[in-house]
Amino acid sequence: MYCETRISMEDFIVSSVKDTSNRMQLCTLLGKTQLQLYSAAIAEPLDIVSIVDSRSAIQLEAKDITGRKAPMPEFESVLSALISRIEMHPLQKTGIKPLDEALSSMEEKLCAAAKRIMLNFISGAPIIVRFHNDGDGASGAVALYKALEKLAKETRLGTSNCIWTMNKGVAYTMQSLSYDRLRLSSYHSVVKPLLLMTDFGTLEESEAAVKSAQDSMDIVWLDHHPVYDGFNRGSVHSYINPWLEGFSSDVTAGALTCAVAGKLSGTRIKNLTKASLLSDHSAYAEDEPEPSELAVIMDAMTTDASSRGTNVTPKSILATIEDESSHKLVFTQAKSQMDEAVSKGMKYLKARKAGNATIATLDYSHISENYYGYVRHGRFTSVFSDSVAAKFGPSITIVYNKSLASIRVSKELSGKLRLLSLISEMKNDTDYISNGGGHNEAASVKLEDEYAMRDFLALLYREIESRLGD
Ligand SMILES: [Mn+2]
Fold first, then answer.
1. Cα of 250 vs its chain's centroid, Å
2. Structural domains in the chain?
3. Ligand 1: centre distance to CA 240 (Å)
4. How many angstroms separate the CA atoms of 377 and 393, rounded?
5. By CB atoms within 10 Å of each CB, which of 97, 248, 327, 459 scores lowest?
6. Which of 377, 314, 33 lies closest to 166 in space, CA to CA?
7. What is the CA(199)–ligand 1 centre distance, in A?
8. Do residues 110 and 256 lie in contact, with contact meaning Cβ atoms separated by under 8 Å?
9. pTM of the model
10. pLDDT tens for residues 257-299?
11. ∠165-272-305 over CA atoms, to 5°?
12. Ion ligand 1 contact residues with beta carbon within 5 A
């Protein structure tokens, strides 16, 4: 009788503990398999627990905790044995040749990022996913969410260690960091917590917070914004940016993140990848019905949440996408608002020539009072610039709103104009630009106050004319 019990007895190592609101702990245990159990007793990372029958165990009891601690090498070998059973999936093709080539040249780095995520997933250590509040950021987050849900089913683990946050704005700030630290305080794990950032953060404002975050978290960072002079990826665990790999912003952060999600679980990512291209006006974007609707819905939901100051999760985005009537409602409303705003903008724009190109300028006050939600300054400028290009050909679209100017440059002009360097020269030569940045095809400039806009525009026209003239 005693012998039988010993045969079925199994040792597990506590790899992660999450405090829950009902004074129970949720423990992730690693042994011959991975297991999650609630515990009324206090367990700590690296505790060895003995569970008589792991299949029928529903709760960890005080008597299960042996009082012995696992040495770190033993924990590591148990974890790596479990992970080696899960194979990485092959890189999925999107069918867009230059994009597939870019992604496959980055495959090794994407795979390393996926493996780093897997480490936390299997060991129950927390993963904070922060995504930029637009369709590109959201597409990557939705793909990752689907991938981790699928993995959870396959490994019989839960996803309570995954924390989803829409990042309002383009920086990882000290405030973001202190919020993340607060949320990590209810977890105790052997493996270091992980912060995954997608589609934002490559700017000087993030430096301090990224640097101090690394005491308590590893960072996997997928971005496609141009790196600035003096950018130092430092000791960030994985920083993947097409600009450092010989490509440009056309390879979206969503495409990178979808590729990582596909590697993790084989979840289908084609339409989400295409939606990210459309949302960010990538040169690889193709107008297909399903991805276009996805892009509009993700743009609309993230914008709406931003304007209300609330969070939107990949789970709620998926729920909207998958429910036929909400899908239709969100899409049609967003689309018709934008169409109306754009045709109004086309009436009020002022056009001038610069070499063979057209500069179209619009005062956003003609638009802003009448539209809420999906129609926002930056996104309006992107959609509006498509209509401007359709009417005038190669063009530069400037939409200004009080002290903020949003600028779009047709692809065929962007190499010659080099918008980012133009903005930084103007910033050095004048005293009214507080900051500016983005991509060479899409950027924004913030002035010290709205009264400087006339001077700014006059100088900008001259600079554009001189660069495009010769
Ligand atoms: Mn983006």
1. 15
2. 2-70 (2.40.50), 97-322 (3.90.1640), 338-469 (3.10.310.40)
3. 13
4. 22
5. 97
6. 314
7. 5
8. yes
9. 0.85
10. 999 999 999 999 999 999 999 998 898 999 899 999 999 999 9
11. 35
12. 136, 199, 253, 280
